[in-house]
Design brief:
It is built from 22 helices and 53 strands. It has 840 residues and is of the alpha/beta class. Among the domains are: 1-123, no CATH class; 287-296 and 304-426; 561-663, no CATH class. Keywords: Membrane, Transmembrane, Transmembrane helix.
């Protein structure tokens, strides 16, 4: 139910009879009687000064608060101050404009609102008024307070006030807004639950020195935002011995002629974005507690100097898209958080000297018109110059980088001076570098949202940067220090190839054979000598290889049992081969049936690739069994097409497929399955397994040695076996000296012939030669002279000991080939490592 309509009761603090006759009391009373439309009575107290001029007009509502619905007219006389108490304003938009126009006779207003409620949507929009004093005490606002083009002279105070539930449920962020206002004072604004709201100063003018302390805004707001402000002199300092500042402040598109911090500790968030600083900016880290301070899009027309009594910086500093027209100096400090200079422009020098940076520094897309001086500093994480431009010089003298600085472009091609004397980059393992790639991608993704997660490209950039620094050193004839970067460069080349292969598999493309071979060789070089950098490792590896060969030679001397074991178990290999061929045939026929009769479609390229690979396995096994030349030719053509004829790979695969199908079905490949049961094929298969077993064991041993190269104690034990083998038989370290002579290739056969029974030797020699040997000695000599005929004859079936000896000789011969190839590699790596380490 609406409150009853009321009237305005006018009271004077003096008896009317005491007033001068010149004061139109009746006119004043009549003007106020019809001033407002109110519900319930409204008391208007008029207070006169001793001079009988009007000092104050007080509008006092009742205890239930008087409602002012409308403004009827203006006042036509002058007074000094107006006070509204216990009033609810329900005014139209037009009347809201008039609320402060009531006092047009005064050039400056002193207005107070006490225990009032502004319940109109637009009552808080105040335009073009000059206030000497403005107070809001214990008031409630239905909308934000909006001051446009107003002037504040002496005091502005909002105390113990609040906002309505309607305001809380609205989308308003700002509770008080100043547009194009002029200040001779800063307002004191205390609104309940202020941590949820913002204050906005947009395009204001501050005529006096501004002193921001903990009491200026009454309590902590979500943010106080200064936008498009020119500060001639602004200071942050303490008041009444309070040394903390707890107000969040953001400066946007503002200009500072002078800014200073004195004796204050800032526990709030302060940021400077799109600002201009015309005087030297001194940053003192101990004053701040926030995690990150932003100067993004700002311009510094004077030096930016970081000063810190503790010599530590514990905040992230962001200078994205900032222009430095003078020096940026950060010297003799420990920086524990990120420095972000993304897209920054340095008209003068960027100077970070004798400092220790424990977090990343981002200089992506930065432009350096003068140069960079990082001399004497240590960077424990990434220094990212990705796509930056440098015009004059880089001073990395005595600088330490844990990771190589990242330049996307080759700065050595530019006409700039680069000083990397005594620069060091941490010697990281390949595993550390692999982890580094992922960490770098995560770091750059913070600033480049469209950054592609393609590891191979990133690894290539890392590798090219090592090459760049190596090239700088080589250009200065410093080949020894340049060699220190080669190892890291090769690590990254290995990682690059691995990532390329992974990306190929993701795109359903087979990795290149050449890349696989490069990865294999790089891995072997890394494991054996750390790319010719670790002399101890290659020496131990070489002796370990000799030790393995020595052990296998000892086993060969007592190898009768081993050969017998192979011969007894060869039947299992025959059975596996049998079922493998059947499986390939079954798979091929099944796919054809499904495709032709049930219209089930396959990716024919993939099917073709699988079938060819399975058939190649059969070709290799056919070579093992038959030692067929045609199988070798097919394998050679296939590898040639894979490596060198990339454009005609599909054509080669089709031709190869047709050849294999022809051989498979028309050239007796099926008969090989049956031939395995035949003694001749069985003997060939058995013989092949025996002669390759020693080489296979030695290759497995070499692989184990490569795998355990970092386990120094185990490698040392294997190397000690090699040393012992050299003392026992020095000839094992003389490669190619008689290793492939006639006697060496038939050592165990000659030994077996010498151990033959005399009668058996005579019988064998009689069957080889038509004439009968004259003596036992002559018979054994004939067997040795005609060893080739003996090896190819069926007589070996009657003499298993000779057959076993021939197999062992074949195995040892192939073992020697593998051993001397590995030993030659070890000797080459050893001399290259010794040369690099300046021993020879």
């Amino acid at each position: 139910m609406d409150k009853e309509k009321g009237k305005i009761i006018v009271e004077f603090n003096k008896d009317i009879s005491e007033l001068d006759n010149d004061i139109p009391i009746k006119v004043i009373k009549h003007s106020i009687d019809d001033l407002f439309e109110v519900n319930n009575d409204l008391l208007c107290k008029i207070e006169f000064e001793k001079s009988n001029s009007i000092n104050k007009i007080i509008f006092h509502g009742n205890e239930d608060k008087t409602i002012i619905n409308n403004i009827a007219k203006y006042l036509d006389f002058s007074f000094n101050e107006t006070i509204f108490e216990n009033i609810i304003f329900k005014l139209s938009e037009f009347d809201c404009e008039d609320l402060f126009k009531l006092f047009f006779k005064s050039s400056e207003f002193n207005i107070s609102f006490k225990n009032c409620v502004f319940n109109s949507n637009n009552i808080q929009r105040i335009h073009d008024i000059k206030f000497k004093k403005l107070y809001f005490s214990n008031c409630e606002f239905n909308d934000k307070l909006y001051f446009n083009n107003c002037v504040f002279d002496t005091q502005f105070l909002i105390s113990d006030s609040r906002v309505s539930d309607k305001f809380k449920n609205s989308q308003n962020k700002e509770v008080v807004v100043f547009y194009d206002c002029n200040f001779d004072c800063l307002p004191l604004i205390h609104i309940e639950e202020s941590q949820n709201y913002e204050l906005l100063f947009k395009t204001p003018s501050f005529n006096n020195k501004i002193n921001l302390n903990n009491n200026v805004f009454g309590n902590k707001y979500k943010q106080v935002k200064f936008e498009n402000v020119i500060f001639k002199d602004i200071e942050f300092d303490s008041e009444y011995d309070k040394n903390t500042f707890e107000q969040n402040i953001s400066f946007v598109r503002s200009k500072f002629e002078h800014i200073a911090f004195y004796g204050i500790e800032i526990k709030s968030n302060i940021n400077f974005e799109t600002c201009i600083f015309n005087k030297e900016f001194e940053y003192v880290d101990e004053l701040f507690h926030q995690d990150k301070i932003s100067f993004n899009n700002s311009t510094f027309n004077h030096n930016f100097v970081i000063r810190s009594n503790s010599k530590e910086i514990n905040r992230e500093l962001s200078f994205e898209n900032v222009t430095f027209n003078k020096d940026f100096k950060l010297n003799n400090k420990a920086i524990n958080k990120i420095l972000n200079f993304n897209k920054a422009k340095f008209k003068n020098t960027l100077e970070i000297k004798n400092s220790n940076l424990f977090d990343n520094i981002n200089l992506d897309n930065a432009i350096f018109y003068q140069g960079i001086d990082f001399s004497g500093s240590a960077f424990q994480k990434f220094v990212n110059f990705y796509e930056s431009q440098i015009y004059k010089y880089c001073n990395f003298n005595t600088t330490y980088f844990k990771y190589v600085p990242i330049f996307k472009t080759d700065i050595t091609k530019q006409d700039i001076k680069i000083d990397i004397k005594f620069m060091t980059i941490s010697d990281l393992s390949i595993d550390d570098l692999d982890k580094t790639i992922g960490a770098y991608i995560n770091f750059v993704s913070l600033f480049k949202k469209d950054f592609k997660n393609e590891e191979s490209k990133i690894v290539k950039i890392f590798r090219e940067n090592f090459s760049m620094f190596k090239g700088v050193l080589l250009s200065k004839y410093n080949s020894f220090e340049a060699s220190n970067y080669k190892k890291q460069e090769l690590y990254l080349k290995e990682l690059e190839l691995k990532y390329i292969n992974k990306e190929s598999l993701k795109k359903s493309k087979p990795p290149k054979i050449k890349d696989k071979l490069d990865i294999l060789m790089l891995g072997i070089n890394r494991a054996t000598s750390d790319h010719h950098d670790d002399l101890y490792q290659i020496i131990m590896f070489t002796f370990a290889i000799i030790g393995g060969y020595f052990m296998l030679n000892c086993i060969c001397a007592y190898s009768n049992e081993i050969v017998d074991i192979v011969q007894e178990n060869v039947k299992y290999g025959k059975i596996l081969f049998f079922f493998f061929v059947l499986f390939v045939n079954f798979l091929f026929v099944t796919m054809l049936i499904l495709y032709w009769f049930f219209q089930i479609y396959f990716n024919m390229i993939t099917v073709l690739r699988i079938i060819i690979q399975l058939m190649m396995c059969i070709v290799i096994l056919e070579f093992i069994i038959q030692e067929a030349i045609i199988a070798i030719l097919i394998l050679f053509v296939y590898l040639l097409a894979k490596i060198y004829f990339k454009k005609f790979q599909l054509l080669f695969k089709l031709i190869l497929f047709c050849i294999i199908v022809y051989l498979w079905y028309n050239h007796g490949y099926f008969s090989y399955i049956a031939d395995l049961a035949n003694d001749i094929q069985y003997v060939k298969f058995e013989y092949f397994l025996v002669i390759t077993s020693f080489s296979a064991v030695f290759i497995a041993y070499v692989y184990i040695c490569i795998s355990i190269c970092r386990k120094r104690l185990i490698l040392f034990f294997l190397a000690s076996l090699g040393v012992f083998g050299i003392f026992y038989s020095p000839s094992i370290i003389t490669p190619f000296l008689g290793a492939f002579s006639e006697d060496a290739r038939n050592h165990y056969l000659y030994k077996a012939i010498d151990e033959l029974d005399s009668q058996k030797a005579l019988e064998l020699s009689k069957q080889i030669l038509a004439k009968e040997p004259t003596s036992e000695l002559n018979a054994k000599k004939i067997l040795k002279d005609y060893k080739d005929e003996l090896k190819s004859s069926k007589l070996l079936e009657k003499s298993p000991e000779l057959k076993r000896a021939i197999a062992i000789d074949g195995g040892v011969l192939r073992l020697n080939i593998v051993y001397y190839l590995v030993l030659a590699f070890c000797i080459f790596a050893l001399q290259k490592t010794m040369r690099k380490n300046s021993i020879i």
